[in-house]
Amino acid sequence: MRGRLVGMRAICLRDRDTPMAPISDWGHVEWLSETSQGCFHWSHDPDTGHGIGGRIMNKKAFATAVASVAVAGTIAAPAMADETATTPVEQAQQAVEQAQQAVDQAAAQPTTQPQQDQVAAAQQAVTDAKTSLDQAAAGTQQAQQQVQQAQTGVQQAQQNVQQAQQQVETTINNDPNVAAAQTGVNQAQTNLDKAHDSLAAAKDKADQSAKNAETIKKAMNDSQSIRDDAAKAKEQADQAVKDAQRKVDSTDKTKLDQTTAAKQDALGKAQTKADQASDAAQQAQQKADQAKSLLDEATRIAGDANDPAKIQEAQDKAKQADQAVKDAKTAQAQATVAEATAKSEADKTRTQADQAKAALDKANDMKDAAQEKADKTSAALDKATDAKNTDAKAVKDAQAANDKAQAALDKADQAVKDAQAQADRTKDEYAAAKDAYDKAQAAADAAKQAADEAAKAQAEGAAGWFKTNKAEQAYKYLTDDSVSQYLEYTHIGAKDDATSLDNLLKALDMIDECNKLRADHGLEPLKVSETAMAMAMVQANYAANGHYNHNYQYDNVGENLDWGFSDDDPYDDWYTAEKETYDAAVKSGDYPDLAKLSPYDVFLKYPDLYQQVGHYLNIVDPEYIATGMAYSGYGETNYDHAFTQEYFNDWNSYNANDTTFDASVYRAKVEAYVNQIKSAQSTYEDALKQVEAAKTALDKANTAHASAVLTLDKATSYLQDTQDESARTTQLLADATRKAAETQTAYEQAKSADEQAQASLTTAETDRQTKQTAYDQAKSADEQAQTRLTQAQAALDKANTDVKQAEQDKTAADTRLDVLTDAKNALAKAQTAYEQAKSEADQAQQAKQTAQDELTQAQTAYEQAKKESDKAAQQVKDLENAKTDLAARTQALAAAQADLDAKTQAYDAARNEADKAKQAETDAETAVRNAQQALTDAQARLAKAKSDAKDTEAVKTAQAKVKEAQDALDQAKTILAKAQADLKQAQTVEAQAKSDYETAKAALKTAQQAANPKHDDNTGQTSLNAAQQATVEAAAKADKVMASTGADTNGIILAVVAFAGMGAATLDLKRRRMDVTARHGMR
């Protein structure tokens, strides 16, 4: 047993003034029954850590039942004997009513008139007091409602204060200095966490080292058993060697190995042949591929070689080129003769021209005088002409500029239209991108809300799950201190708390294990009760916080407790260990009919055994239909974590409002809930990515739209410029046209004057022209001769060029013909080479396939031979293994002592290792202290930074809101205090009304006794008083013994009291017993 032992206290029904005798809280505890005082046997075994198992009855029902037994034993027996009889509560109520009837009968007896008046007055006083009591109770209820409303107001005000304070914290935390200091604190905290982790690891190692030493010590005690087992194992090994040798002797392994070797050699040769054939096929294929490549190249180069028409065309062109060379040389010879003749004629005409030139010069002198005058008129005409031409060109240029400006205007107008369309399109695209961004942002906001809600649900742990699953009763038992005690040990959703979602899933794993164990016994699986789950969580947190016992707070439930490491399996203790004890007890024969007894009957008949197997019997109890499980990671050490399991049967009082599920269904629901929580953050992150993508698209669309607007602005500006330019060129065109008309008139005048001067010049010119004609004729003849000479020379040059060109064309045509002829031959050769290479490749491929088939046959033959050889080898190996095992078994006995010595040395080493681990733990503690100091320093810096940040306007504004919220909270608290005071006053009034009511009833009793002194009202009222007194006392005692561990505590005590007070009265408790539970101390 690991951990401390938990003591148990005896539960006795004594007189109210007789205290229960205290017992030791540690070690073995045992009390024997004291039937005279209503006590029963209770025991706790320190060797096993088990308390007795038992069942719990509802406190009120238990108290009433005790009162009923104490008052009227004759009522209990028949009620308990029949499953359809009234309950103990109903029996007690009947006893009260019967007693009240007796009082009423006494009051109805004939009396004297004064006595009757007194009775009537007392009866009226009772009625009035009862009315006052009812009114006071109503006032108390109303005051309670007002308190609840005021509490709601306080809670809302507290939330407002918290939100305002959170805003102050947020504002402070956003300060850069605070953020930097917070980073320092976070780093220091990280370092401290690492130091704590190192310390935890050191502690774990120290604990494990101590545990290892104890394990080795136990192993030394097992050496004798190992020695005996070794002798028996040797005998078995001897027989195994004989059997293996017989198999080896019946097989000719050598022959099989030779056959296998031969097959393997044949396989190797076949493989070599196949590889060679594969290589040959590969090389042949490469050669064929190369030949094909050459064939493709020849085909490409030849191009037209396969076209007879183009070959004929090339041949024709070659012939034509040859004829052209001949014709060009003939023309060259003719041109040479023509050039010599032309040169002779040119020389003759040049002499005649010189003579005519002299006569002309004389006529020219006469003409010059007339020419001078004509020149002046001609100059004037030229000037007028220039002006006319200039203005005409100006008109033309102006027209061209105007046409250009108009074209630019049209183009600019179209550009504006295009830019406007682009701006409109990008505007629509921006609107669409903005809509997509808004939707993405809305989706992200919704995802953030879901993520925040998921984080809140994560923090709420199982409580959040119960709310989601509408498990109202479970949620109430987990959070409401009016139905569950010790909630101060439960921190909803905390990492190590039983209510964390991870520990909830872990609990479901253990329920699955429980159902597997029940299935091994042919039992129905337990459903998951969410109420039982909530109870188990509360109990596990309580147990893990240093409470190594049961707290008896829930009625009508079975309960198992266990303490240990986080990775321990409680069923190792509850089921495996206790089942061994139970099976051994059945096998021993010391407990007759044990296997046939129910868990409850085992407790009654064999209580000493029950305390050792109570947890096991809970697990395999066929009456249970639902369960709840919890694990709490709290604890002073890492082996103080707590495991708790609660059990419900089919008539349990919680079932009416409970929510139960098949374990697999419930797991699926919980896992879906947990997965939804875990996926909410990733969904939010994905939504943020979508927002980022939408923002990028929005920015892109915005940029495009801005660019389009800019382009539109530029196009509009350019359109205005072109409109201005068009207007300007139109005006220039008009001006140029007007000026051109003016110069046209001046030109016509100058032309008339010049014509007159030219008439005089004409006469002189006529003579000159005659001479000029003669000269011109001579000159013309000379020029013609010179021209013919030039033409003849040009013809000769051309003939020379034509000869060269014809020779070049002939060379090109011959080359073209040669290329086509050679390409055709090369293509034929490439085709032949490719066909030969392909044939060789096909033959090589066929050879490869043949070799591969031979290889497959050789492989099959080898594998068959090897299979037979391997079988024989395995037989030899089995023989060798058997001999090896025999040798090992032979040495085992001697090795046992050596093993003991080794374990002793190992124990010493383990103790040394434990000391080192302890020192490492001390060092780790020092590191934690240092890290803690560093964190303290960082926190001080953070506190200073936050203090400095409080002077900012933003923080002051937020603090002002905190003050407003705090003032509202103070006002709400004032209202609550007044409501509570009113409630207290109402409760005082109710208490006084109740006291007055009791006084009035007592006065009525006195009046009734005085009115009928001969009537023995004890028949009714004494029974009533006794029942009420017994009920009060039993309820008080029940409050002390109501819990979930031990036997069917109420049923057992009721049985003891009944047997003590009623003698031969028999209670058939077996038919009305409650849930069996067990109690377990620390392991």
Q: What's a quick, concise take on this entry?
A:
The radius of gyration is 61 Å and the shape is flat.
Model description:
With 1083 residues, the protein is mostly helical. Helix content is 78%, strand content 4%. It contains 18 helices and 10 strands. A 5-stranded mixed sheet has the order 6-8-7-5-9, with helices on both faces. It has a 3-stranded antiparallel sheet with strand order 1-2-3, covered by helices on one side. Strand 2 and strand 3 form a beta hairpin. Helix 8 crosses helix 9 (472-479). The longest helix has 287 residues, at 663-949. The radius of gyration is 61 Å and the shape is flat. The relative contact order is 0.20. The model is unreliable at 1-89, 1014-1028, 1030-1077 and 1079-1083 (pLDDT under 50).
Sheet-strand content, in percent, reads under 5%
Task: Give the number of helices.
Answer: 18
| Helix percent band | over 70%
Mean pLDDT: 81
Shape: flat
Sequence of secondary-structure elements: EEEEHHHHHHHHHHEHEHHHEEEHHHEH
Spans of at least 5 consecutive residues with low confidence: 1-89, 1014-1028, 1030-1077, 1079-1083
Category from helices, strands and their pairing: mainly alpha
Could you outline the blueprint of secondary structure elements for this entry?
Layout: E1 29-31, E2 42-45, E3 50-51, E4 53-54, H1 59-71, H2 73-81, H3 88-107, H4 113-173, H5 176-221, H6 223-249, H7 253-302, H8 308-468, H9 472-479, H10 501-520, E5 527-529, H11 530-544, E6 558-564, H12 570-588, H13 599-605, H14 607-619, E7 624-632, E8 641-649, E9 660-661, H15 663-949, H16 953-1011, H17 1021-1041, E10 1046-1047, H18 1049-1062
